[in-house]
Design a protein that fits this description.
Layout (H helix, E strand, L loop, with lengths): L1 E5 L7 H16 L5 E8 L14 E7 L6 H23 L3 E5 L1 H14 L3 E4 L4 H7 L8 H16 L2 E3 L3 H9 L23 H10 L7 E6 L9 H13 L3 E6 L3 H10 L7 E4 L6 H7 L2 E4 L13 H8 L4 E4 L5 H7 L3 E4 L6 H12 L4 H12 L3 H13 L2
Parallel strand pairs: 1-2, 1-4, 2-3, 4-5, 5-6, 7-8, 7-10, 8-9, 10-11, 11-12
Helix pairs in contact: 2-3, 3-5, 4-5, 7-10, 8-13, 11-14
Length: about 400
């Protein structure tokens, strides 16, 4: 069969590298799959490089309209992209469509309306609610209105929905979706890629000019939107008060923003490393750290999240300070003694860092926590879901 896979991020985006490429490899290995058309939206300014060694996968570009105001440009994209995808489907006689995220799922539904090709949506989440509750969109924002509508259509018409958290699967079932149409597929990680090695820890600490015996915390990600901004910096700052010889590593595309926030709140610049790193380098930084932060904004819908970075932190054996109510992960971290829970309403900084300090004294802590990635973020759930959709539901 021929499969079309819709990504929502550039082919060179770290999210594509970490969450889509491994799934394309699954399709590549399936005997039933003859060819995969992989499409991604790309800005004209991007240098497109698709270097992955696939035999069955062809990469196709969805050209973004960036010569308009942002809102208009994105609406134009959602008008143009389904037409391009429809032509691809007809030309290549596509049998099934897989979309990564409910944003890409909107395009899959539009194509389904024309061609009636069965489609599945993996990483199906209430994106509209995430953006509303985080204050990025308002209830009258056209993006919220359209996305909310498209998510309903996906719930009605997708042959298979793959939420990343068990809580959202239960929510969908409670709201009338047939359980046979839902499989929970957490965001998987390559545990071997992030596996901790003590020698590497010392090597990368030397490269980063970190003292061998310091306690290093690491944050990977953005500031603002779905993530805390000032609250995260206050949390980081408290570590300097409660942990001995603390060092902070921040990996973000918002280097200037992070630098400004750290200066604004008086964090010691000499003890902070702020870099923009390629995805391939992230395991090195995680190896140099002792624990990690996952500071998502708290809101009711965040219990349906399943952050990729949490799985990567686990694979590296790092205890995590995570915001309460974040997906299934916050409960797992609390139950398995794998970090500390951050409550933005009652930020008990001293208690959190006492928990982290205690964990760091535990013999074999990194090995114990790395097992969580194997237990909760292995790729077998995706393999099972793909076989259900592509083979058993044919």
């Amino acid at each position: 069969m021929n499969v079309l896979f819709i990504g929502y991020w550039s082919v060179n985006d770290p999210l594509t590298t970490s969450t889509i490429i491994p799934h394309l490899k699954i399709l590549e290995e399936m005997d039933e799959v003859k060819k995969v058309m992989f499409v991604t939206p790309e800005s004209p300014a991007n240098k497109i490089i698709f270097e992955h060694a696939f035999q069955k996968v062809e990469h196709h570009i969805l050209p973004m309209k960036n010569n308009f105001p942002a809102l208009i440009a994105r609406l134009l994209d959602f008008l143009l992209f389904p037409k391009i995808i429809t032509k691809l489907c007809r030309k290549n006689k596509v049998d099934k469509i897989i979309a990564r995220s409910s944003l890409a799922g909107a395009m899959a539904w539009m194509v389904h309306q024309k061609l009636k090709i069965p489609f599945a949506v993996e990483s199906f989440e209430p994106h509209a609610e995430y953006m509303l509750e985080s204050g990025v969109w308002t209830s009258y924002d056209p993006r919220y209105i359209f996305q909310k509508y498209w998510e309903r259509k996906q719930q009605q018409h997708a042959q298979l929905l793959m939420p990343v958290a068990s809580g959202y699967k239960n929510f969908l079932i409670e709201n009338g979706i047939n359980p046979e149409r839902i499989i929970t597929v957490p965001c998987s990680v390559d545990a071997k890629r992030f596996q901790f090695n003590k020698e590497n820890k010392m090597k990368f600490r030397e490269e980063l000019k970190l003292p061998a015996k310091c306690i290093a915390g690491i944050y990977v990600g953005k500031f603002g939107g779905l993530y805390y901004r000032e609250e995260a910096i206050r949390l980081f700052k408290a570590a300097f008060d409660y942990l001995e010889d603390f060092r902070l590593i921040i990996l973000t595309a918002q280097v200037e923003e992070a630098t400004f926030l750290c200066q604004k709140y008086g964090l010691p610049s000499a003890a902070i490393t702020i870099n923009k790193a390629k995805y391939e380098a992230i395991p090195h930084y995680l190896a140099a750290a002792d624990f990690a932060y996952a500071t998502y904004q708290y809101s009711p819908s965040k219990k349906y999240l399943n952050p990729v970075k949490v799985g990567e932190y686990w694979a590296a054996g790092l205890p995590i300070i995570i915001t309460k109510g974040t997906g299934d992960d916050a409960s797992i971290i609390e139950e398995k003694r794998a970090g500390a829970i951050y409550d933005p309403d009652l930020p008990e900084y001293q208690y959190m860092y006492m928990q982290i300090g205690g964990l760091l004294e535990e013999t074999g802590i990194r090995k114990r926590i790395s097992q969580l990635a194997v237990d909760y973020r292995n790729i077998n759930a995706c393999r099972y879901a793909y076989r259900r959709f592509l083979v058993e539901q044919s």
